[in-house]
Each structure stands twice: as structure tokens, then as C-alpha cells.
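Lab manual, section 2.4: Encoding a predicted structure.

Procedure: take the sequence of the chain (89 residues), apply the prediction step described in section 2.3, and record the output as C-alpha cells. A sample record is shown.
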Amino acid sequence: MPTKKLKQAATGHVEKIKSTTHNFKEEFKKQTVIAITAAFAFLIALVWRDYIMSIIKTDEATLVSTIIVTLICVIGLVIISKWSSTEEK
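Recorded output:
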């Protein structure tokens, strides 16, 4: 009898560990997406700030680099958002 109770207790602990691991993975993914999104947004803001500052100095090459960085960041955001929604389904 004690071995049966021990097996049941062990099974309960294993399920709890699996559940906790799954919850950790989901929360880690959410926080990673938030951090990467914030980093991209910050990068876009800095590039556009530099561009606006360069307008005063009339530097046309900065516009091209600003648009390129913005497009790369937007593509990165789309990829990250798809990655974050794949396991939620």
C-alpha cells in the first residue's frame, strides 16, 4: 500500500512540474516579445530623432538610412509577433 500512495504522490508532483515548466515557457516568451518590441521601438525612435535633427543640417542620405532601419525593425516586429502567437493556438 505505501508504494501505491508514493507512486500517486510522485505522479502528482511530475504533473505539477510539467505545468510549472509550461507556464514558465509561456511567460518567458511573453516577456521576450515585450523586450524585443521595446528595443525595436527605441531604435526606430532614435533613428527618426537623428533624421529630424539632420533636416536642420540638410543631410538627405540620412532619410534613406532612416527608412531602411524602420523597415527592418517593422519586419522584425512582424516576425516576433508571429513567433509569439504560434504556441498560443
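Check your result against the sample. The chain is about 90% helix and 0% strand.
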